């Protein structure tokens, strides 16, 4: 059965999309909850503007992500930590990386977009991926340097 989505439905589609679903799913869930309507010509036309606006917004986000990727790629962030035998006392966490990137590049980067397998707990350079948008990912390096009495604390 075909329905026209009026709201975003996870793993199904966005407002304005006409999708095929099981009749029971449409009758018992999508239609009663107002998540979809019958795809009449009037309804399709009514949601066409919503769909066009969403497509424009997605293109803008993608362009912004591509521009940010160009700025971020190859960036090296330095963190100073006290250490003993190359083991640091305070690990470098995704929220610190996101915060420093946001500050340095004046762009909102959430900690959930910072991809490291586990907190960084050793001196040296570590590759880090930043997921910007869909399949657009920037690659940066985090350098953890031993803190000395005269080094910058940050």
From TrEMBL:
Domain Ribosomal protein L9 residue range list: 13-40
Record's keyword annotation contains Ribonucleoprotein: yes
GO cellular component: ribonucleoprotein complex; ribosome
Sample GO molecular function, one term: rRNA binding
Claim: Phosphoprotein is one of the keywords in the record: no
A GO biological process held by the record: translation
Keywords tagged on the record: Ribonucleoprotein, Ribosomal protein, RNA-binding, rRNA-binding
SUPFAM superfamilies in the cross-refs: L9 N-domain-like (SSF55658), Ribosomal protein L9 C-domain (SSF55653)
Pfam families: Ribosomal_L9_C, Ribosomal_L9_N
PROSITE patterns: RIBOSOMAL_L9
Role of this protein: Binds to the 23S rRNA.
Family to which the UniProt record says this protein belongs: Belongs to the bacterial ribosomal protein bL9 family.
Name of this chain's protein: Large ribosomal subunit protein bL9
Source organism of this protein record: Fraserbacteria sp. (strain RBG_16_55_9)
Lineage of the species this protein comes from: Bacteria, Candidatus Fraseribacteriota
